[in-house]
Amino acid sequence: MQYEAVVIGVSAGGLMVLSGILKELPGDYPMPLIVIQHRSKDERTLLEEVLQDKCVISIRQANEKERIDRSKVYFAPPDYHLLIERDHTFSLTCDDPVNFSRPSIDLLFETASEVYKDKLVAVILTGANRDGAEGIRAVRQRGGLTIAQDPATALFPDMPRAAIDTGSVQHILNAAKIKDLLLQLAKNRTDHA
Amino acid sequence: MNKTPATDNEELKELLESIRFVYGYDFTEYAEASIRRRIRHFMSANNFNSIRALNKTLLEEEDVFEQFIQETTVNVTEMFRDPSFYKSLQENVFVRLATYPFIKIWIAGSSTGEEVYSTAILLKERGLLERSVIYATDINQKALQTAKEGVYHLKKMKGYTSNYMKAGGQRSFSDYYVSQYDGALLDRSLRQNIVFSAHNLAADRSFNEFQLICCRNVLIYFNQQLQNKVIDLFYESLCPFGFLALGNKESLLFAESRKNFEEVDRKERIFIKTGQ
Ligand SMILES: C[S@@+](CC[C@H](N)C(=O)[O-])C[C@H]1O[C@@H](n2cnc3c(N)ncnc32)[C@H](O)[C@@H]1O
User: Fold this and answer.
1) Which positions in chain A touch B33 (Cβ < 8 Å)?
2) Is the domain of B57 the same as that of B112?
3) Do B252 and B260 touch, CB atoms closer than 8 A?
4) Span B112-121, pLDDT tens digits
């Protein structure tokens, strides 16, 4: 299967896992990675800067109406929902929080799965709420590949556990294995290209 | 999930077209992912199991349509939202407005009015409100009605007070409202210089010339084409060297007429009309 995009949802306790995964990705990783990290609305771009220092792959905050490119990691800006449009651009909205979250993982995953269908990879990492569970279900329903961090290895197990409880998660892995899988998916892509 | 997405898209298009045809509300150029999601939300909350069924009801029952508009437009707002924006507005824009004998401001997509009163308060503190008229417009009639009343939840005042201080407010925020039960009634005198009226950015034309247009967190709901049209409308409606203020995440980056504007404050998204 040739996947086209990776979406990642991560909340409390996420910085370590996330940087552990992202820093292993090559600068020409063949897909875009779109990340929802719950964070304070007063924090503007610090997270991106801290991560960029550790990673070779390019890391940025998603802009309204920006085209989605491969080999880039996009973060949702704090306090906005991030949605994917059919023409592969981003939209931002300030609708009410979904499940107390803005940005909402569910919203990103649902809109991404409508666009990328079975060519989407969705990953849920550590977090202390249940955002992302509905999103994972939507991704799986449309044939996408679903992955959750093994709750036993997560700093906050609630979020991956809620995703797993939907019965829609195909792979339950620790962070290192998730990274390996993401690299493998990229390799399959280049092998077929 | 028994329908292919293609027919889904066509039905959605059909729905938006018929709404435009019957009621004159044009959502055909709204950013699709979000309008689609809100329509779906409305459908599941009101037990419609197909877009077709929804379409039929909306065309036949005006009160359901009213409710549909209420629930599918997003009216989230607050007073002094993004305090650093208001700080910059005072420092970079109000000083220039002060040079005009008569000041005209348009706040487009003013929702329930919090932004309008915030601006009026700061104009008042700079001694500018008396010679200003603020035109506050929105397509949502109910939101406009709330705006006119100027009564907000008392429990929100704490957050607004902190925003007001961060925005560079010079007095005590409690000077501007009186509490009534669980509501905060904003100072009536602020309203003397505000005109609230319905205006649809997707369909209506320019109605005056302004020195400042604020349109914050509205364009994000539009697609690129409609954004371009609305930016052109603003351009036409600004006097030479008039100011345009957008929301925190909105830019002219992808707009066709960006060459006609220069940045005044990049971070706070304040622009000035330059080209012709
Ligand atoms: C998220 S609110 C923004 C409120 C306020 N400007 C702020 O920044 O806090 C968006 C507003 O835009 C209004 N709106 C949406 N489409 C519009 C249109 N075509 N013409 C005028 N207003 C519109 C909605 O009714 C809503 O009140």
Assistant:
1) 83-86, 91, 111, 114
2) no
3) no
4) 999 999 999 9
CB contact under 8 A, A64 and B220: yes
Residue B16 lies in a domain: yes
The response to whether residue B247 sits with its C-beta less than 6 Å from ligand 1 reads yes
Do B92 and B217 lie in one domain? The reply is yes
Q: Ligand 1 center to residue B268 CA distance, Å? A: 19
Q: What is the CATH number of domain A5-191?
A: 3.40.50.180
| SS3 (DSSP) at A168 | coil
Cross-chain Cβ contact B224/A63 below 8 Å: no
pLDDT of residue B215: 98
Q: What is the pLDDT of residues B237-250, one digit of tens each?
A: 999 999 999 999 99
Global pTM reads 0.90
Residue B24 half-sphere exposure, CB side, CA atoms within 13 Å? Answer: 6
| Domain that includes residue B236, residue range | 83-149+191-273
Counting one residue from chain A and one from chain B, the pairs whose CB atoms sit within 8 A come to 57
Residues B42 and B138 in one domain: no
The region that residue B181 occupies, defined by phi over 0 for left and psi between -120 and 50 for alpha, beta otherwise, is: left
**What CATH number did the domain enclosing B205 receive?**
3.40.50.150
> Comparing C-alpha atoms, which of B20, B19, B27, B23 is closest to residue B74?
B27
Residue B3: per-residue pLDDT: 45
Task: Write the ipTM.
Answer: 0.81
Number of structural domains (chain B) is 2
CA proximity to B213, closest of B265, B148, B268, B135: B135
**CA distances (Å), origin A159, targets A4, A129, B207:** 25, 5, 51
Contacts of A141 in chain B (CB under 8 A): 1
Residue A151 has pLDDT above 50, yes or no: yes
